[in-house]
Amino acid sequence: MAILFLATLPVHAQDAAPAEAVAAAPAPEAEAGELDGLENPNIDAATLTLRLIPLTAEELEKLSADWLAIVRASTVDVVDEQIRINNTSAELVEEAARARLTEVTESRRALFDKYSTILDAWELKGGDAAKIAGYRTYRSAIIVEETRNTDWRTLLAQATSWVVSADGGLRVATNVGIVLASFLGLLLLARLVRRTVRHWAGRIPNFSKLLVGFSALAAYWLTLAIGLMVVLAALGVNITPLFALIGGASFILAFAMQQTLGNLASGLMIMVNRPFDEGDSVDIGGVSGTVRDVSIVSTTVITPDNQIVVVPNSSVWGNVITNSTASETRRVDLMFGVSYKTPIARAQAELEKVVRSHALVLSEPEPVVRVNALTDSGVEFILRPWTKSENYWAVYWDLTREVKDALDRAGMEEVEAGAPPVVAPPTGVAAAS
């Protein structure tokens, strides 16, 4: 917007052009008809843009020289009007004179816009960067010099004219409105896409909740990014430099955010390989609890005492992961000891009765009750019933109590047993409940 405004500001600066560019510029009539009327100052801007497409870099260089002469001649008209105002006493300066200056300046601004369009096309087709820079410098010098030498009343009149101009402020306001409206529309579309992707991805058998959530989030941001680029391109904004900027920024960020990128890569590995899912009871590098959420950079775990622990994904993927709820069933390992005075057959029968009578113990695989060792204090039995994973701790606690009660009722003396051969998995949220 600032460039469009400054392009309307006239000044005494026809000599600000680079000497080489102006000297090399032929008169508008020099190449007349050679480029099918593209050197006509009255050509429509949209038509000009389309007609530039088939031109080569050499043809665009000739056309740029023609248009340099055109905008120079228009700038001479602007300066002449400004001199006419400056040479008249303030009291005698009429509104008509300023209106005439504003009209000439607006006409010159439209020519400068077409001039810039030609230079952009020349640059895209591999034109000489030094020459193009010289042509652009001419316009910049004109704007700066005119702004510096114009009185404030003229500047105000020209600014007002630009604001209400269909090709000036109104066009900018319209474009801004289009961008804002498009962005709001894209937000709604992106949410719809995210919901659709989440629905369809959730129906894929091998997709975990983590991968479903990531796919939906990626679809959301891709829709916004692509949609905004399409809108900007439709408005005539050159988005090519944006890609170069993103590429350069990505290269710099890759060094500045190595740890974060490592977490991101680990997060992708977790989502693809699925060592756990949301709601699973896990032990990750010494942190035990239930997985509440997995983002692209971290995993959030709720401990049995309701603490929230956020673990970087690089630490998760780089450590041993124990998932206590990944399997549908689990084996409960218990050990009990009875004195040598107790008959082994009687003790085993009592233990089998307690195990088989529990409602949550599965009949398949069949529970195992065996003599495990003869210790200094007595006979050691091992109990290995199977149950559903969500019932693990209920069975563990119930059998520990019921075996004690059964041995007491049978008059059997219980002695201290050794530690179970397989250590019970860490306590998860299910244990706390």
How would you portray this structure in words?
The chain is an alpha+beta fold. The protein is about 55% helix and about 10% strand. It is built from 15 helices and eleven strands. It has helices spanning about 1-5, 20-25, 45-50, 55-85, 95-125, 130-150, 150-165, 170-200, 210-235, 240-255, 260-275, 315, 345-355, 390-410, 430, and strands at about 280-285, 285-295, 300, 310, 320-325, 330, 335-340, 370-375, 380-385, 385-390, 415. The strands form three sheets. It has a five-stranded antiparallel beta sheet. A hairpin with a 2-residue loop joins strand 1 and strand 2 (about 285-295). Helix 8 packs antiparallel against helix 9 (about 210-235) and helix 13 crosses helix 14 (about 390-410). The longest helix is centred in the middle third of the chain and has 34 residues, at about 170-200. It is rod-shaped, with a radius of gyration of 40 Å. The model is unreliable at about 1-35 and about 420-433 (pLDDT under 50).
